[in-house]
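In full, the data.
>
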Amino acid sequence: MTTAYDFSARGIDGTEVSLEQFRGQALLIVNTASKCGFTGQYAGLEALHRTFAGKPFEVLGFPCNQFGAQEPGLADEIATFCTTTFDVSFPLFDKVEVNGPNRHPLYAWLTEQKRGFLGSKAIKWNFTKFLVDGEGRVVARYSPQTEPAAIAADIEKLIQNG
């Protein structure tokens, strides 16, 4: 696999989604959780989604239960929580693992492309973010503490530069 567009994942509704459908768009790929101290970032992610609506950009949310069991719900419960609590309208996917032997292939690839602190490939916590350019290449990795609004300028640059 050479770009983010080469992967697919099961959507929150259970259907298989090819990331090829996002070709040409910048992507912000985020592992999320509904019961985390960073869960409020859903609002910021939705704000980015709406700010850049109609432009070649999309937020993709991948719920994950590997950090403190902070995403215990089933897909329909996660979807309901996100839409009723944060009015989320960006694409959400079914729960994935982001670390370990059963991690989703997309996350194996993302963490190989942009390593974290001290070169670690491991995802440290919920709401780790990867920014992908319109060619499907990972250009940045952001810590869970990075608020979505702080990424807006980087997204704008990617959109302007094609």
About this structure: The chain is about 25% helix and 20% strand. The mean pLDDT is 94. The first helix runs from residue 41 to 51.
